[in-house]
Amino acid sequence: MSAPPATRPTSLIVPIRSLGPGHRDRIRTHLLALEGEDRYLRFGYAANDEQINRYVDGLDFERDEIFGIYNRRLELIAMAHLAFSHGAHAGTAEFGVSVLRKARGRGYGSRLFERAVMHARNEGVDVLYIHALTENTAMLRIAAKAGAVLEREGSETEAHLRLPPATLDSRVSELVEEQLAQTDYRLKVQAKGWADFLAGLQEVRQGVRDSRGKSGR
Questions:
Q1: 136 pLDDT band (50/70/90 cuts)?
Q2: Bridge partners of 192?
Q3: Distance between CA 140 and CA 119 in Å, rounded?
Q4: What's the CA gap between 116 and 166, in Å, rounded?
Q5: Can you give the residue ranges of the N-acetyltransferase domain (predicted)?
Q6: 29: how many CB neighbours lie within 10 A of its CB?
Q7: Are 81 and 112 in contact (CB under 8 A)?
Q8: DSSP letter assigned to residue 173
Q9: In what order do the strands lie in the sheet with 156-162?
Q10: Can you tell me whether residue 11 is helix, strand or coil?
Q11: Which residue, 92, 98, 166, is CA-closest to 129?
């Protein structure tokens, strides 16, 4: 029997890790790197640098969940914000995602959505909401493919996806994915450190050669 649309994974294997306060600066760099149109689609308005800085400074890593995809240079190329509701709206959450333009077309938005759905299920969320501009066809297509109901209201569209209860499989799958992503991140940190060391060594050698060349004149 096939899995429900909301939980059926893609064949794309992408390490996605949870982000904490220590990643705030990279989140800021990521969002500030978004171009004007991309900022408009992500936030629903043409967010300027000051507004993005306020958004990043206000991220609550204890309450919400932030997921990210890093490349080999430890550049955050895609991220998602899963905001949990409380009080009268407990049991619901809202999803938002951004992908740098140079990293588009690789399915990162879909993978981040799947990762967020898995975590939301395991946290007892019944309904996942997506508020998007109607022109944000990429995001709405991801939601519709997962089985979400789309309701258009003028220039905005709200998608809501009912989630199945958590299972042992969903809980174990999330633990495995997070461990793999943590390992991948540590390896990238080590690889970048080694690459930076070699680059620094090369600069020192070049400096020595330049110095010798000048002294031999």
A1: very high
A2: none
A3: 20
A4: 13
A5: 27-182
A6: 12
A7: no
A8: H
A9: 17-19, 65-70, 76-84, 92-99, 127-133, 156-162, 149-153
A10: coil
A11: 92
Question: What single letter denotes the amino acid at residue 38?
Answer: D
Is there a contact between 143 and 118 (Cβ–Cβ < 8 Å)?
Answer: no
Task: List the domain boundaries for the chain.
Answer: 17-215
Cβ pair 140, 159 in contact under 8 A: yes
CA 18 to chain centre: 9
3-class secondary structure per residue, 54-122: HHHHCCCCCCCEEEEEECCCCCEEEEEEEEECCHHHCCEEEEEEEECHHHCCCCHHHHHHHHHHHHHHH
The SS3 of residue 14 is coil
Residues written for the chain: 217
Hey, which bits of 103-202 come out as E strands? 127-133, 149-153, 156-162
Q: Is the pLDDT of residue 95 over 50?
A: yes
Instruction: With residue 207 as reference, give the H or E element that holds it.
Output: helix 168-215
CB atoms within 10 A of CB 42: 23
Q: Give yes or no for a contact between 97 and 112, defined as CB atoms under 8 angstroms apart.
A: yes
CA distances from 94 to 65, 114, 195 (A): 11, 13, 39
Using 50, 70 and 90 to split pLDDT, how confident is the model at 119?
Answer: very high
Say which CATH class 17-215 falls into. Answer: alpha beta
Check whether 79 has a pLDDT greater than 90: yes
